[in-house]
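Students often ask why inverse folding is considered easier than folding. One informal answer: many sequences map to the same fold, so there is more than one right answer. In these notes we will look at a single instance of the problem. The structure comes first.
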């Protein structure tokens, strides 16, 4: 199986997939770009291009990469968050599979710019197959967007490589609750801040802070005992603090699924999620799921994790749930099954033609 994977933005996640697929015997050529903060030197299976639609730049590397891809003779082409219309040319080399993370934008700040929608929305809808990462998205896709081609479900793994995962942190050594990622309206700051303030006013509060990481805009003042590290960040700068936290708050107003959620579970950090989108679908059984506007419910969930005994139970539940459902090896095996099915369907279609 030869897989040509096009992913200019989610480079760390694409690398995790590529290396697990290679471990399963597949050949992978990853065409990517240095757009993600975690980008570094290309690996042996990577080709790095500009990745952005700058018509006056990047043509020679693009043409060289296209020649390399044609010689690679892929069995399947995978596309994910493309930004440069020139990259559509790669899609003609084999049956194309699009990876669809979101059924709809989380809020207006999450909507792709008009030029991206112009070049890619209709083109994406004509892919040979679609892979989604939650039943929520599968059920929400408009029938016209997948008319005539199959939709497959795969688990979403974390984009943190296994070699970077720190040791599991014991409950008694943990501090603070974290809210990480793009700080946009869908993060539901008003509800989260109100729940946090309620927690700090109760006897169960143990002096922890609410710590925010990520760029964006927050329209209301931070609550007491909270701090915000603005701007982009690298995993090596925040992963130790996340792994040693008592809880990861993902109480979104809208979400198809959450990379932060699976990252937190990978580290054995309990996740506190809202009832939005596929967040409950990814949540370990018995762990916190509260209504989008349920301030008291979220506060009670935070209260519970302030207790060391409960924190110990939920931390181990989180880690086991990740290893059983979302580990990168599990995701790669499912993707390989999908790609194998796609190639067989495509050969059958060609024979019928």
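Output (designed amino acids):
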């Amino acid at each position: 199986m030869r897989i040509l994977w096009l992913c200019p933005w989610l480079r760390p996640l694409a690398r995790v997939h590529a290396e697990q697929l290679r471990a399963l015997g597949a050949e992978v050529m990853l065409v990517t770009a240095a757009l993600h903060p975690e980008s570094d030197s290309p690996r042996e299976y990577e080709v790095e291009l500009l990745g952005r639609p700058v018509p006056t730049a990047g043509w020679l590397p693009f043409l060289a990469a296209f020649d390399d891809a044609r010689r690679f003779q892929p069995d399947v082409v995978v596309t994910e968050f493309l930004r440069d219309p020139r990259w559509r040319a790669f899609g003609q080399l084999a049956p194309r599979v699009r990876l669809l993370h979101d059924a709809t934008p989380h809020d207006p700040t999450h909507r792709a710019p008009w030029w991206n929608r112009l070049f890619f929305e209709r083109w994406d809808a004509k892919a040979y197959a679609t892979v989604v990462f939650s039943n929520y998205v599968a059920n929400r896709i408009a029938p016209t967007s997948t008319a005539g081609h199959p939709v497959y479900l795969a688990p979403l793994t974390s984009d943190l490589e296994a070699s970077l995962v720190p040791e599991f942190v014991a409950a008694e050594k943990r501090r603070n609750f974290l809210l990480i990622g793009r700080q946009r309206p869908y993060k539901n700051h008003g509800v989260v801040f109100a729940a946090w303030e309620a927690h700090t006013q109760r006897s169960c509060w143990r002096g922890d802070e609410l710590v925010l990481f990520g760029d964006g805009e927050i329209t209301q003042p931070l609550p007491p005992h909270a701090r915000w590290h603005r701007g982009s960040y690298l995993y090596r700068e925040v992963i130790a603090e996340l792994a040693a936290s008592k809880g990861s708050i993902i109480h979104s107003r809208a979400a198809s699924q959450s990379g932060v959620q699976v990252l937190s579970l990978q580290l054995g950090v309990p996740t506190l999620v809202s009832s939005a989108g596929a967040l409950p679908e990814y949540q370990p059984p018995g762990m916190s799921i509260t209504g989008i506007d349920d301030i008291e419910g979220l506060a009670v969930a935070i209260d519970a994790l302030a207790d060391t005994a409960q924190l110990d139970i939920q931390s181990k539940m989180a880690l086991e749930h990740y290893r059983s459902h979302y580990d990168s090896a599990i995701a790669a095996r499912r993707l390989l099954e999908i790609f194998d099915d796609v190639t067989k369907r495509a050969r059958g279609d060609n024979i019928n033609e």
